[in-house]
Specification:
Layout lengths: L12 H18 L20 E2 L6 E2 L7 E5 H7 L4 H6 L4 E4 L12 E4 L12 E5 L2 E2 L3 H4 L7 E6 L3 H4 L6 E6 L8 E9 L3 E13 L3 E12 L3 E2 L6 E2 L2 E15 L2 E14 L4 E5 L3 E2 L5 E3 L5 E6 L9 E6 L2 E2 L15 H7 L17 E16 L4 E19 L21 E21 L2 E20 L10 E2 L3 E17 L2 E17 L5 E3 L8 E3 L4 E21 L2 E12 L2 E2 L8 H9 L5 E2 L2 E14 L4 E24 L7 E25 L4 E17 L2 H7 L15 E12 L6 E12 L10 E2 L3 E12 L2 E8 L9 E5 L14 E5 L5 E9 L1
Parallel strand pairs: 6-9, 22-42
Antiparallel strand pairs: 1-2, 3-8, 4-5, 6-7, 8-9, 10-11, 10-47, 11-12, 12-15, 13-14, 15-16, 16-23, 17-46, 18-19, 20-21, 23-24, 24-25, 25-26, 26-27, 26-28, 28-29, 29-32, 30-31, 32-33, 33-36, 34-35, 36-37, 37-38, 38-39, 39-40, 40-41, 41-43, 43-44, 44-47, 45-46
Membrane topology: Multi-pass membrane protein
Family: Belongs to the TonB-dependent receptor family.
GO biological process, one term: iron ion transport
Length: about 850
């Protein structure tokens, strides 16, 4: 049995907040006050300064009264951050959940910031941006090769970033060409067939007036885990990206940028497995998988208090154990699988864009333009426009084990198997125009924005013959968002500023019938009948105003404190998949609390913080404490309904409802200390707590018999997280233009719960990465070891089912789906500047 580190002790949020801010005050006192130095330092005169655009204008990260974690291109490269998972692992207070949809791959990656866990698969609480333009998914953010900077902005950011910035925003800034011919070539090779090839070229087209930058990248790796079924690797990933940026500066007052990017993710079957609450045994008595149950829960057959009967559910409680069963999945791409994926009926994406076997295929295109015009020395106009197209499909082995010991006369493989296809298509367009004014003590921003986002989802599978009738395509889901926003900052005193910000937002949601028409079998949600192809089924408009007020005080030139109050709104949702079900299934969904239209989620956030420098500027720090009230929370309700029309006899229905209320609170601290010319220490930590006030979930109550979730914590999020980076580096003696560095990073995440009942939890994760390199002039060589100590802690944990041929344990949760991490990997990287 694998042994795991013991969890750290709980600490009071008030004690942590006081400690963090007291530390900041101590550091502030260590720096002498110099009245002659201006309150707002010029970042250009500070070689260690980082500029961010959290409020749609350039500000020193130590002067902006918002909690921001920023990583420059140099920091990203030195830490080896190349994916959204790497970014989350290196940022306290951030988790990535990739198994909310029943499979642990890159298709549905949800960013969990400050514990704001999206409760449904398609929900988003943290939005992604490239140069301030929204993108469809986290994969597009990390597809930007060699970015200038990545900013993680924490707290509701509705005023400036708009919808889905409920918990915060992540913005990637692209590098601008400098107008001189330059380029880089980077090559990496490593164990597990890792390789990366990256190239950039930039230069002038017409002097400094018209310049360009082109990047290309290819990354591939084999998974770290062997499939006991056929010996293949699980977790293979391959990404190809290309981008181009053109900058036009016809005059000092006007700058126009045009950026375009294409990327493709082509992955194999995911690195995942299940921990079972029950044995899986063949008819002959052969045990295929052993249960790891250590508790029996007194659940409820209905999951509704006062109804149903008591049922006993074997489950895994407490800190989940290591693996005892072989990791296996039926992932051989047989002719029947290939023919199934070549079907053109009932699809929402073209077969040319479809995966051709087990795994994931995603194709993304992104383009945006940005125009900046300086009307006068005080007034600036900006215009942004963006376009995103993303199509993906993934074929998974839904049963998730080697089921070849169960003969079947109906399955084309000759034994029980449950292949399942999931596919999705996203299209969106966005525009934003704003004016910025800066004169004397007044700084102001005002603008309008528009976003039109369309989504089509579909898929299906089964245990028998794979035909088009198993596929259920969804109609279009449309969201049109119009926003009008403003920001006003006034220096009440030379060292005291007040800011008022806000956005008035109109969201219009629409759900449409499938292109081939749709028959609604029940009037449970909308009138029953036959609807023509692409006909509007339901539409709803929501109007909200989200304000924020900030006061910040520059105590001295080195120290700033701030306090803010903000409100945020997360857009509503539709449960359109319910409409495709039979009348009995729709009735079951309605009885379980399912709704077709769901109201928006709302948040009220209170925050205090301190930022500054100490020790003659060698130590930089930010500290913040927050308290947030999340109301009208949208939660998922999964229903397993009897359905004789399917080969399994069951239909899984995912619905959602406004059925939760939770308070979130925490403290965060980031420091960067240049101890000497040789030694630097980067350290950060976060405590992100949650306190559920009200929550309802029929599926969790069916499993646990728990109806009162008050005092419980949110799922999928680490309460404690920390990062420490020790960097040694300097000049190479007797080598002109020679440098060296060694960097050791420790990334810590405490365990995450699988559900709001807090029954099962992953162990704490401790990941160490080691990197060292030398450079001379145009050449640089790095060697690295990722996951130095080969930590095998699960990357995700979600409730799931034992899906054997009998389906005897599929009425209630009976297993835990776990994501498996990348194991220790060695690598060598060479970079050449041209």
């Amino acid at each position: 049995m694998t042994r795991y580190p013991r969890p750290i002790r709980s600490l009071s949020v008030f004690h942590l907040a006081a400690s963090a801010l007291a530390m900041g005050a101590t550091l502030a006192a260590a720096g002498p006050a110099q009245a002659s130095e201006p309150a707002a330092a010029d970042a250009a005169n500070d070689p260690g300064a980082i500029t961010v655009t959290a409020r749609k204008r350039s500000e020193d990260i130590l002067k902006v009264p918002v909690t921001v974690t920023a990583m420059t291109a140099a920091a990203l490269e030195q830490r080896g951050i190349v994916s959204i998972t790497d970014l989350a692992g290196s940022t306290p207070g951030v988790n990535v959940n990739n198994s909310s949809s029943g499979h642990a791959d890159r298709s549905f990656q949800q960013v969990v910031l400050r514990g704001f866990t999206p409760s449904t698969t398609l929900a988003t609480t943290t939005s992604m941006f490239i140069d301030g333009v929204p993108v469809s998914s986290p994969s597009q953010v990390t597809s930007v090769s060699d970015p200038a900077q990545v900013d993680v902005v924490k707290g509701p950011q509705s005023a400036y970033y708009g919808r889905n910035t409920f918990a915060g925003a992540i913005n990637v800034t692209t590098k601008e060409p400098k107008g001189e011919w330059a380029g880089t070539m980077t090559g990496m090779v490593g164990t597990r067939a890792n390789y990366r090839l990256q190239g950039t070229v930039e230069g002038p087209i017409i002097g400094d007036m018209l310049t360009f930058r082109v990047t290309g990248e290819r990354f591939s790796k084999n998974g770290s885990w062997r499939n006991a079924y056929d010996g293949s690797t699980l977790g293979d990933q391959k990404t190809t990206t290309g981008s181009a940026l053109i900058v036009f500066k016809p005059s000092p007052k006007l700058t126009m940028k045009l950026f375009g990017m294409m990327s493709e993710d082509r992955d194999g079957a995911p690195a995942q497995t299940r921990l079972y609450g029950y044995d899986i045994t063949t008819a002959s008595g052969t045990k295929v998988a052993a249960n790891q149950s250590n508790c029996t829960l007194n659940g409820n057959s209905r999951g509704v208090q006062g109804f149903g009967s008591t049922v006993s559910n074997a489950y895994i409680c407490g800190t989940v154990p290591g693996l005892i069963n072989p990791i296996s999945a039926n992932t051989v791409n047989t002719d029947a699988i290939k023919q199934f994926l070549a079907l053109t009926s009932n699809r929402v994406i073209p077969t040319s864009d479809s995966v051709d076997g087990y795994g994931l295929l995603r194709k993304s295109q992104h383009a945006h333009t940005a125009v900046n015009y300086k009307i006068s020395s005080d007034l600036t106009a900006d215009f942004l426009a963006g376009y995103n197209r993303e199509v993906w499909s993934t074929l998974i082995d839904l049963d998730g084990f080697d089921s070849s010991g169960f003969p079947s006369t109906t399955n084309p493989k000759g034994f029980y198997d449950f292949p399942y296809l999931v596919e999705r298509r996203n299209l969106d367009w966005s525009m934003e125009g704003r004016l910025a004014y800066n004169h004397g003590p007044l700084r102001a921003v005002a603008g309008v924005s528009y976003l039109k986002a369309d989504t089509w989802s579909g898929g299906g599978g089964g245990t028998g013959a794979l035909t088009a009738s198993l596929l259920v395509p969804g109609g279009k889901s449309e969201n049109r968002t119009t926003g009008m926003f403003f920001g006003l900052t006034y220096d009440v005193l030379p060292n005291l500023s007040a800011s008022i910000e806000g956005r008035y937002q109109i969201d219009t949601l629409g759900a449409y019938a499938r292109s081939g028409g749709q028959t609604i079998a029940s009037s449970a949600f909308i009138p029953a009948g036959t609807y023509a192809g692409n006909a509007l089924l339901v539409q709803q408009t929501y109007k909200n105003f989200t304000p924020r007020a900030i006061i910040n005080w520059q105590i001295n030139p080195r120290t700033m404190v701030y306090a803010s109050w903000a409100k945020g709104v997360n857009p509503a949702q539709f449960n359109t998949t319910i409409l495709a079900q039979t009348a009995s299934v729709q009735a079951a969904a309605l009885a379980a609390g399912g709704q077709l239209t769901i109201a928006p989620e709302k948040i009220t956030n209170y925050e205090i913080g301190m930022k500054g420098k100490a020790l003659d500027g060698r130590l930089r720090y930010t500290a913040a404490a927050y308290y947030a009230q999340w109301r009208n929370q949208i939660n998922a309700i999964t229903i397993v309904a009897a359905d004789p029309t399917t080969s399994t006899g069951f239909t899984f229905i995912n619905t959602s409802a406004n059925s939760g209320s939770v308070d979130l609170y925490g403290v965060e601290l980031d420091t960067n200390w240049k101890v000497s010319d040789l030694v630097s220490i980067e350290a950060g930590g976060a405590m992100n707590g949650s306190d559920i006030k009200y929550f309802r979930s029929t599926t969790i109550s069916q499993l646990t018999g728990i109806y009162d979730f008050s005092g419980k914590e949110m799922k999928y999020t680490s309460k404690y997280s920390a990062n420490v980076g020790l960097v040694l580096g300097g000049e190479l003696k007797n080598v002109a233009d020679g440098k060296w560095f060694t960097r050791l990073d420790w990334n810590f995440k405490s365990g995450v719960w699988s559900n709001e009942a807090n029954i099962a939890k992953t162990p704490d994760a401790h990941k160490f990465n080691l990197r060292a390199g030398v450079s001379k002039g145009r050449f640089a060589v790095d060697v690295f070891v990722n996951n130095l100590l080969n930590d095998k802690t699960y990357t995700s944990l979600t409730d799931n089912y034992v899906l054997d041929p009998s389906f005897a344990h599929s009425a209630y949760f009976s297993a835990l789906l776990v994501g498996l991490p990348d194991l220790r990997t060695f690598g060598l990287q060479l970079k050449v500047k041209m």
